[in-house]
Structure formats: structure tokens, C-alpha cells
Write a structure and sequence with these properties.
single chain; alpha/beta; Leucine Aminopeptidase, subunit E, domain 1; Aminopeptidase; 17 helices
């Protein structure tokens, strides 16, 4: 299955007749650079008759421009204390939506460089591409898989235009894969079909794929994941899959990333069933695994050197029925830790914990800078604590000493994929200590995370304890850096399209040599 991303073409001529309309994304039309002077007159004329000019997206008749129409999507102020580069992506997305309503099929996006934001043009292109994404199920029911024939991008010179086009296409291809997996309904992207999709995407690419489906192997190697799968396993097309991905760049490896993604294809809550109408949207509980697959797609396109990445997508449906796992059950993790289930709606940590343990075992054999990650739409508390739009990253001691979380936060600011930093504290470990002689570790309390103090930090402590990573803290002979990323708030609205978070931040953080090589963009 090819990743059929929206075609993009660059131009240095704002009057290029290949296009049928212009979308201008800028703070003001008054200070446009050389080559864009022809955009000023129609906007100046319009501003004299509309007092809301600059506050809303407007369409202006422009006889001398392609298609005789100009969409102006003003960013608003961009230099206040609380502004960031998302002003450009948001404006571009809004401008593109308005352009589609005008009937444009070959829009030309113009976002002039801005002194305060090195990558504002690229960010605007990514915002427009987000608005142009067509969901997988819709594409499969139509003859055309794109909303427009081509997206034009204006650049100061051909070299810059080619670079923006190449990088935007690569980054969008990763978000494309992420949205396809994360946003598609629980049948279209049930675990076996996710595996089929991933195998097709990475066929004949630098990424290798291995799919584990045998129940005996799942029960032996990933007992906690198998417990969540126990009920769904009775329905063949809902049965769990562990999808393993690997990429190794050219040259001596300088860094190794080890990613575990939560891929709950539908979360009923299990025996602790989600009641009161809150189950809708739970097909999006697979966006962590979707982000892992999306990042590998970026790797396949950009082919960064000296970087090794291994990934595991835990694809499971948390079904409810006679054979579902229940609270009070005792089980032993892959690391040999005895845990008690406190709530079956805390299934995400169950899906990831044994995969994280396996990554830990591999990391101990790695010779080059391994760093472990879990990525998940894990807790409602993440959205409650930070609001929508923000991913949260939490480091263990070894990762914290390297300044990892702050590096991710800084990387997220470059292309508008923002992070907030949280800290795993001693209270989080104490919260998950066993409450009786029966268990060493308590999987969860029986309250929603939104009603639990430190509701998004505690699960990170559980993952560390139950995977055996607590034996590899800063006080050990072999400390292993580990970070937990909760994208419950940033993965996107429902109803709506997944954002693809945190792929842009990851690509910026770990493919810096590629993005810096293209530093002439803007």
C-alpha cells in the first residue's frame, strides 16, 4: 500500500498560471518581501471596506493573480510572550479550508519568511497539508485520494522550494501513516488489519517488519498484553498483534532509540466498562502505536545516518465479555514482578509493560546510547492537566540527567508540536506499591485518572517498576534512560482528524542533521 501523500510543487512566481488561486499566510500584507508586491493592492482595497480584516480568513478578487482570487489568512500577532510558530500552521489550515470552499483545485500557498521563526514557511505547509488529509475510509470509497490536484508552495528560489517540498512530503508521509492507523475505525484498523497495513507500507523500504500473532507466544512473552487480549482473542479479526519495526542508518551507529507504542484498537474499558456515553472515540486509543509507525515512515523517507531505531506496536482490543480480564487478578509480568489488576480500564500500561521489558533486555545488550520510550494516549489526566494540544514527556533519572525532556520540548517548538515536561516523583512509586502480601505492585486504583492526584505521572512509575527498569536507575551499574510520553491531549480532537503528534518533534529532535542541512529554508 503506497503512502499517497498530497502532491506538492514549488514555484518562485506568485503569478504562476499552473495554479488557480493564492492562499497568503502572513502577519500583515504591508511588509511583503520583493516578488510579492502584486498581492498588496487587492488586500489594501479590501481592508478599506471591512473592519474585521485581519481577524478572519477573507477571499479577495484579484484579477492579476492566478484564478483571480486571493485568500488571506492572517496569523495575527506572533511576537508576544505566549505566541509560537503554530500561528502559521493554524492560519494555513484555516486558509486552506476556506480555499477548498471556493473550489480551488490547484492552490498556491505563500508564507513569506519571518525573522522570529526559522521554519515558519515549512510549518505553514504542514498546516495546509493537515487540512488536505483525506481519511483512509473516505479514500477507499472514492476514485480520487486527494482534495486538490496539487498544492503549490512559493519560495524565494528554486533550491529553497525543492528543499521545502522534499522535507514537507517526508514529514507529512509520517503523519499520514499515523492518521490512517490512529483515526480509522475499530474494524478497519483492528489489530490484524493494522499489521497488514504496516507490512504493505514498509514493503521494499529500509524498515523491516515482524508480526507476532501466535497466542502461545503472546502469553509466554507478553503475559499482561495477553491478559487484555484474552476476551478479544475469541473473535479472529480482533485478535492481538505485536508489530516489531527496525531501522538502521548508514555508517557507525551513534544513537539507538527504542520505542513502544500503545495500540488499543478499541477500549470498552473491559470489565470496568466505560459508562455514561464516554466510550465513543475510543478507537483513537491506538494513536501511540500509530505515532511509532509514522516515525518509522519518516525514517524510511529521510534515511538519517548513524541512527538505529527499534519499535514495538502493541495492537490489542480491550473487549468486555465472559473471558475478559478483571480487577483483583494477580499476574506476573515478563520481568517477574507480581502485579494486581486494580482497574481493567488501565489497559494501556498492561499492553506496553512487557514490550518495555523486552526493550530493556535488548538495551542492556546495546553498545551505543540506547534510550527507551513509551508513547501512549494513556490518561485523561494528561488532557486535564495540560489541556488539549500538548504532549507530556517524563524522564527517569538517567534521561533527566541528560536533559532529554527539555530537548524534546525545544524540538517541539520548531515546527509547532509542543511539549510540556512533567516529573516522576517518589509519591508516584509509592502509589503503585503493593497494598498486601499478595502483590508487589498495584496496577491502578479504581478511580479515573482525572480524579486521581498525579494521574498521568503515576502510570510512568508503574511501567518502570513492573518492567524491571527500576533496577537500572542512576544508582545502578547499568542505568538506562527512559522517557514516557502521554499524547492523550495532543493526539487530536474527536470528532476530527488525528494530529500526528509527536512525529514532528521526534523528527526534529533525532533528524537534526537533516533539518539543519536544510537550514536555508526561510
Amino acid at each position: 500500500m503506497p503512502v499517497n501523500v498530497q502532491p506538492i510543487k514549488s514555484t518562485i512566481d506568485c503569478k504562476d498560471k499552473r495554479f488557480d488561486g493564492i492562499i497568503l499566510v502572513a502577519q500583515s500584507y504591508e511588509d511583503l518581501p520583493e516578488g510579492l508586491e502584486s498581492l498588496k493592492t487587492p488586500l489594501q482595497d479590501y481592508s478599506q471596506v471591512d473592519c474585521c480584516f485581519g481577524e478572519e480568513v477573507v477571499v479577495v478578487k484579484a484579477p492579476d493573480l492566478p484564478g483571480n482570487r486571493l485568500v488571506f489568512a492572517c496569523t495575527g500577532p506572533v511576537n508576544r510572550d505566549y505566541d509560537d510558530v503554530r500561528r502559521f500552521s493554524d492560519a494555513a489550515a484555516n486558509g486552506m479550508k476556506r480555499a477548498l470552499k471556493t473550489g480551488m483545485k490547484r492552490p498556491l500557498l505563500i508564507c513569506p519568511p519571518h525573522n522570529s521563526y526559522a521554519k515558519n514557511t515549512l510549518t505553514a505547509v504542514l498546516g495546509a497539508l493537515h487540512a488536505l488529509y483525506m481519511p483512509l475510509e473516505v479514500r477507499e470509497s472514492k476514485t480520487s485520494s486527494h482534495k486538490v490536484a496539487v498544492l503549490g508552495v512559493w519560495a524565494k528560489n528554486q533550491t529553497e522550494g525543492a528543499a521545502i517540498t522534499e522535507l514537507a512530503t517526508a514529514l507529512e508521509s509520517g503523519r499520514f501513516v499515523c492518521r490512517d492507523i490512529g483515526g480509522s475505525d475499530p474494524e478497519r484498523m483492528a489489530a490484524p488489519r493494522v499489521a497488514e497495513y504496516v507490512e504493505a507500507v514498509f514493503k521494499d523500504s529500509p524498515v523491516t517488519v515482524e508480526v507476532v500473532s501466535d497466542l502461545d507466544i503472546l502469553e509466554e512473552k507478553y503475559p499482561c498484553l495477553a491478559a487484555v487480549n484474552r476476551c478479544a482473542n475469541t473473535v479472529p479479526h480482533h485478535q492481538a498483534r505485536v508489530i516489531k519495526l527496525s531501522y538502521s542508518g548508514e555508517g557507525p551507529i551513534q544513537q539507538t532509540l527504542m520505542l513502544v507504542g500503545k495500540g488499543v484498537t478499541y477500549d470498552t474499558g473491559g470489565a470496568d466498562i466505560k459508562a455514561g456515553g464516554v466510550m465513543a472515540g475510543m478507537h483513537r486509543d491506538k494513536c501511540g502505536s500509530a505515532a511509532v509507525a509514522g516515525f518509522f515512515q519518516v525514517l524510511a523517507k529521510l534515511k538519517p545516518k548513524h541512527l538505529k531505531v527499534v519499535g514495538a506496536m502493541g495492537m490489542v482490543r480491550n473487549s468486555v465479555g465472559a473471558d475478559c480480564y478483571v480487577a483483583d487478578e494477580l499476574m506476573v509480568t515478563r520481568a517477574g514482578r507480581r502485579i494486581r489488576v486494580g482497574n481493567t480500564d488501565a489497559e494501556g500500561r498492561m499492553v506496553m509493560v512487557d514490550l518495555l521489558c523486552e526493550m530493556k533486555e535488548q538495551a542492556l545488550k546495546e553498545k551505543v546510547s540506547p534510550h527507551l520510550f513509551t508513547i501512549a494516549t494513556l490518561t485523561g489526566h494528561a488532557g486535564r492537566a495540560m489541556g488539549p494540544n500538548y504532549s507530556i514527556i517524563m524522564d527517569n533519572g538517567a534521561a533527566q540527567r541528560s536533559g532529554n525532556a527539555l530537548q524534546w520540548q525545544k524540538a517541539g517548538e520548531v515546527l509547532g508540536d509542543p511539549f510540556e515536561v512533567s516529573t516522576i516523583r517518589r509519591e508516584d512509586y509509592e502509589f503503585h506499591k503493593g497494598k498486601s502480601e499478595y502483590e508487589e505492585i498495584l496496577q491502578s486504583n479504581n478511580l479515573p485518572s482525572t480524579s486521581t492526584p498525579r494521574g498521568h505521572q503515576g502510570p510512568a512509575a508503574f511501567l518502570i517498576m513492573a518492567s524491571g527498569l527500576d533496577e537500572h536507575g542512576v544508582d545502578s551499574d547499568k542505568p538506562l534512560p527512559y522517557s514516557h510520553i502521554d499524547i492523550a491531549g495532543s493526539s487530536g480532537p474527536f470528532p476530527g482528524v488525528p494530529t500526528g503528534a509527536p512525529i514532528l518533534a521526534m523528527a526534529t529532535n533525532y533528524n537534526l542533521h537533516v533539518i539543519h542541512h536544510l537550514s536555508f529554508i526561510n
